[in-house]
Sequence to fold (133 residues):
Amino acid sequence: MARCLITFVALLQLACQSPTAPTGSATKGSGRLAGIVKIGPNCPVEQPGNPCPTPPSAYTLRKVLVFNEQRTQLLDSVDIDTQGLYFVDLVPARYLVDIKGVGLDRSADVPKAVEIHASSVTTLNISIDTGLR
Fold:
């Protein structure tokens, strides 16, 4: 019995230190900011109803930035996965969210103030216009 308990505790410690474990501000009572990032157009001439697919590298080059509400301190730079998904666990508070774009990137969705509540998910989807025409 004691051996099983020691093994369980050791595995739990390893899981908490894994690269996929929440880091930084993730604490009991934290909330989550999550969303989908859409990037386009991705080629110079896109036909309506036939868009160019977004290459995975387009997502990995960009970041979602989380600042304090006054935008005086960058609190987190969040990776966007190759499907356009992002999330970050934050302590309950108000934050300002923006993007670190590439080239002529712009978005009407950010900067945006969001409020994070404990044990809930705040969704902020972001569409990035690459400026390609």
The chain is about 15% helix and 35% strand. The two ends are 67 Å apart (CA to CA). The beta strands are 31-40, 63-68, 74-79, 85-90, 93-100, 112-116, 121-123, 126-129.
